[in-house]
Amino acid sequence: MRRAFLMMTIFIVVAIAFGSWLNLPTTRYQSYVGQYEKIFLEKGPVDVLVTGTSATQTVMDPELLAKLLKQRLGRDVVIYDFSKSWRGDDFTYVALRDFFKQGRNAKQILIEYRWNGGDSHDHFYRVARFDDILQGAIHKDGYPWAFRLQDVFTLTVAKSSFYLSNLLLGDWVEMSKGPIRQASTSTMRPNDAVSSNLVTDEINLHAEEYKTAPDRVWDWQSDIEERNRYLHGKIIKMARKAGADITFFELPLIYRTPVDAKMVKDISQLYGVPLITKSREQMDVIFPKGYTDHGHYTDFGRQKYMEWLAEYLAPKLREHE
Fold first, then answer.
1. Which of 119 and 24 is assigned the larger pLDDT?
2. What is the residue extent of each domain of the chain?
3. CA nearest 69: which of 79, 54, 60?
4. Pick from 99, 107, 116, 100: nearest CA to 232
5. 42 φ, ψ to 5°?
6. If exposure means fewest CB atoms within 10 Å of the residue's CB, which of 88, 101, 183, 190 is most exposed?
7. pLDDT at residue 189 in the model
8. CA distance 66 to 51
9. Domain 2-318 CATH assignment equals 3.40.630.30
10. pLDDT on residue 23
11. Residue of 211 and 290 predicted with greater confidence
């Protein structure tokens, strides 16, 4: 009996220690070292923090945007780019939560709005703490509880096995513990960023559909579902508590007409934050050479979008001065 009790005690202690190790930021951000450095190592004020999918990765140029804003504001501007491949605002919530918990803040937070942003990010389990995984399952409204429990188990096993194998196979990344660097406007992109200078046949595939697609009403009710409301609501509440302003922005796919005015109004009223998008005429400026494929941008498309974004952000940033 004593031996069994001892073994059980050792197992519990090891499990707690292992779980605590998995929850450490230096563990959770192994796949996203750039975000770790921005969140935990750098200091100083941030003007604009942008987060989104790979579409945002290819359209964002922090150095160019900082330059354009400096021309308008007459001062240096600090831009953080937290975009990453794949959709999933549960990842966005974790990264921003960690950012704010360090006492950091940004005057403007731009979040790419996707109708399926409530989907779970493919790497959510890597950056999430265990309580994040549990909370995520609890709020998957519409899913059977058996599925939610299975989701917790699957993500927990995936998190544990991923980091344990990284450690044992020598793929571990030692996070910098050197001098803390001041915030900068240098571009931060994960290694899997989509190439933005390769025009593919996908443009031609969707070109005719884009030009001839009939105008149609955006089905906003399927857009504003419970999972989106939960995640976006948490992010907005957290940002407002920190004193940051939030703006949703939409990056239209090449083969879809831009969202209609009703959706923009409905989204803005529901969350109490603006949703900015581009008109058909504006998108025609960068079609087709502004795209590399159906939803990613070339250097030309990026240049134009940064000009549009600078015009929007300049007066917003002046409000904080």
1. 24
2. 2-318
3. 79
4. 116
5. -80, 155
6. 101
7. 39
8. 16
9. no
10. 93
11. 290
